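User: Here's a chain of 98 residues. Predict its fold as tokens.
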Amino acid sequence: MEGHTDGNKAYLVTLTVKNTGDDVFDGSFMVAKARANGKEVVEVNDDKHGLGHYGDSVAPGTSSEVEMVFDAPPSAHELDVTVTPDLLPDDATWKLDL
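Assistant: Prediction complete.
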């Protein structure tokens, strides 16, 4: 497992992409970042979590999920997760209470 620091806590976040459009969504350019206490936190890399394990496309009318794990300091009370779905700056941010 890469990206976890001893003393930090790992938080599992499930991202669901629902394609309500008419075209196939290409998820190959999707980027996710997280911040805690105003600082960017590391996404833990392992053999089953993260955008590297996300399928490349979502057909119209369907959805797909991916689990990500972020490594945050124990003092964090909130995790801000931002997902950018493609090359355009159409990102979405969620504030998650820890």
